[in-house]
Design goal:
With about 300 residues, this protein is α/β, with parallel strands linked by helices. It contains 10 helices and 9 strands. Bound molecules: N-carbamoyl-L-aspartate.
């Protein structure tokens, strides 16, 4: 399987076989976390973050360092020529001669695709508006695989802001490669977009939509919780209506299966109480550590 020079734009561009190849390489990367490697010596990655990030940006940096490569870029577009009015296309035309691959996170849907049209080096989508976050979906799938030993046969609840969240859409499309039952848990105002539901049902996925977690908690093998995306609401008063809608705590998980795992792409802002952290269900910090392995795998595949 040849990934060299490939863009990572959408989780939908990856087949199950390709995802499984990435997961195999991600597991192989574990040994290099301790020992390091010079696999990407002389390679440079550019990280262009037009939106805040902690895990995604720093795990790409760490992945590059662990494999012997170097990183340049910005995490505050106000300190780049963007602030002087430079277009994204011009920025890309310049950066492509400084780096071997470019990671971009942007507020506007379509901007990462536009960058890929103009770039001569591979572009990795690190989150584009409300639409997609493919490397997050890969690490979410990898986390499920590693923590449950399988993805097939599971009932997966995806909860929170299904309307404005991008991780939930990419994850749902990623899960559609497997034999899973999907349960979407969200208040009426934050339900999954209709076009995504249609795509999933075309792929033969049976989907349940509920607004109350208590109704379904005992059926779930995986509960994927997300933050309500305050910054993406066009009207702040709409956010006020759903703010704090979910607060998962030990009590909420009382009727859960013994081996339910709780995931979250992070950051959390109150939707999972810290009293869950010490339960056997909590896997969200472990999940973020899998992000490093998956990003090491992707960089080694694309840049080698
Ligand atoms: C997510 C994102 O940026 O979409 N963060 C991440 O990459 N782990 C989730 C979020 O911001 O809620």
């Amino acid at each position: 399987m040849d990934f060299s020079g490939r863009n990572i734009m959408s989780i939908q561009d990856f087949s199950r076989d390709e995802l499984e190849h990435i997961f195999k390489i991600a597991s192989d990367m574990e040994k290099f976390v301790k020992t390091g490697s010079d696999m990407l010596k002389n390679k440079i990655l550019a990280n262009l973050f037009f939106e805040p990030s902690t895990r995604t940006r720093l795990s790409f940096v760490s992945a590059m360092y662990r494999l012997g490569g170097k990183v340049l870029g910005f995490d505050d577009p106000k300190m780049s020529s963007r602030a002087k009015g430079e277009t994204l296309v011009d920025t890309i035309r310049v950066i492509e001669s400084y780096a071997d691959a470019i990671v971009i996170r942007h507020t506007i849907e379509g901007s990462v695709t536009l960058a890929a049209e103009y770039s001569n080096v591979p572009i990795i989508n690190a989150g584009s508006g409300t639409l997609g976050h493919p490397t997050q979906a890969m690490l979410d799938l990898f986390a499920i695989l590693r923590e449950k030993n399988t993805i097939d046969g599971l009932t997966v609840g995806i909860l929170g802001d299904l309307k404005y969240g991008r991780t939930v859409k990419s994850l749902a499309y990623g899960l559609a490669n497997y034999d899973v039952q999907l349960v979407f848990v969200a208040p009426e105002q934050l339900r999954m977009r209709r076009d995504v539901l249609e795509d999933l049902s075309e792929e033969g996925k049976s989907i349940r939509e509920v607004s109350d977690l208590d109704e379904v908690i005992s059926d779930l093998d995986v509960l994927y919780v997300t933050r309500i995306q305050e910054e993406r609401f066009p009207d702040p008063s709409e956010y006020e209506k759903v703010k704090g809608y979910f607060r998962i705590n030990r009590r909420t998980l009382k009727s859960a299966k013994d081996d339910l795992i709780v995931l979250h792409p992070l950051p959390r802002v109150g939707e999972i109480s810290t009293d869950v952290d010490s339960t056997k269900h909590a896997r969200y910090f472990k999940q973020s550590s899998y992000g490093l392995l998956v990003r090491m795998a992707l960089l080694s595949l694309i840049l080698s």
